[in-house]
Amino acid sequence: MARVYNFSAGPAVLPEEVLKEAADEMLDYRGCGMSVMEMSHRSKVFDTIIKEAEADLRKLMKIPDNYKVMFLQGGASLQFAAVPMNLMKNRKAGYILTGQWAKKAFAEAKIFGEAVELASSADKTFSYIPDCSNLPITDDMDYVYICENNTIYGTKFKELPNTKGKLLVADQSSCFLSEPVDVTKYGVIYAGVQKNVGPAGVVVAIVRDDLITDDVLEGTPTMVKWKTQADADSLYNTPPCYGIYICGKVFKWLLKTGGLEERKKINEEKAKILYDYLDESKLFKGTVEKESRSLMNVPFVTGNDELDAKFIKEAKEAGFENLKGHRTVGGMRASIYNAMPIEGVKKLVEFMKDFEAKNS
Ligand SMILES: *Cc1c(COP(=O)(O)O)cnc(C)c1O
């Protein structure tokens, strides 16, 4: 068996020991004679799996009791609609545009009300996080929306925006569980788990109690109304059982390896190896302003499309997969999520040094 170093932006690398454990339990989950894939979501066994997953996530993130945790479907993209449908009482909200996912959420919100652009980094192809200390937030806005880590452009909010007392909603898909967060600063956090936590098909939504009500926009589908799933403990309909089970294992892996404080240290150390090299290299360049650099997604270029293509091809042959940048931006991108081992980053940098020596 040869595992590659997988730098995919998502679906992405998972901890090997989680995959091995899942493989061991594939045919017979802990003596019950069937796979988690085959069992009723109403069974006692699955009830334990989902309850433990929630409890472990609460422990990891120190989620206060007045926040609900939901395991949902429809991807992060369905939450682009769920956010306005559940929160736009005044039909007005502010959006900070830091990349494609924020833009998509913004466009979706416009279907339901007045979505206002509060700030944008489009002027420099989203290579930085705009100053959010004094945004033109008005009193009638229902919330302020950010995409906290920009998967495609490789930027991250290092400081949350000053929302002037308004509710903060954050798409944390690509930085979820990469470092500690203060949940109390948010009204809503949601994340598609296929970036940093599990297999595609699960979205974790953490929503403050008072925001989960029947007072949603007219026409909101039952499944999009958060209250439906909150009241049913994520079991209103059949949940993505197997995905939740894998997420649960990843939560346990994170707890066992020191929790989010420790994870942040490891992620900083990993990212530093790559950024330090990009800063000294004469061939490769990072594309993001230093203060805005993501710990999870690291885009870089040589400045020459042919050389980029050559690098991606040779890297693949050497066992470094999925380094091609997003189809809309080109160049390269190394996603170095929680489960990417530090050796993977060290070996990638060695390979880049070698490539630089041979091509300059
Ligand atoms: C991948 C991604 C999405 C889209 O997720 P889906 O689950 O495919 O809908 C949204 N936001 C961010 C930040 C992402 O990285």
CATH superfamily of the largest domain, called what?
A: Type I PLP-dependent aspartate aminotransferase-like (Major domain)
Q: Bin the strand percentage.
A: 15-25%
Q: Which class best fits the helix and strand makeup? A: alpha/beta
Please list the strands of the largest sheet in the order they lie side by side: 2-10-9-8-5-3-4
User: What is the radius of gyration computed over CA atoms, rounded to a whole number of angstroms?
Assistant: 21 Å
Bound ligands: pyridoxal-5'-phosphate
CATH architecture descriptor text of the largest domain: 3-Layer(aba) Sandwich
Rounded average pLDDT = 97
Largest sheet: 7 strands, mixed
**How much helix is in the residues?**
25-40%
How far the N terminus sits from the C terminus, by CA atoms, comes to 35 Å
SSE ordering: EHHEHEHEEEEEEEHHHEEHEEH
Write down how many β-strands occur, each being a DSSP E stretch of 2 or more residues: 14
**Low-pLDDT regions:** none
Annotated CATH topology of the largest domain: Aspartate Aminotransferase, domain 2
Total domains, how many?
A: 2
* Text of the CATH class of the largest domain: Alpha Beta
Global morphology: globular
Tally of DSSP helical segments: 9
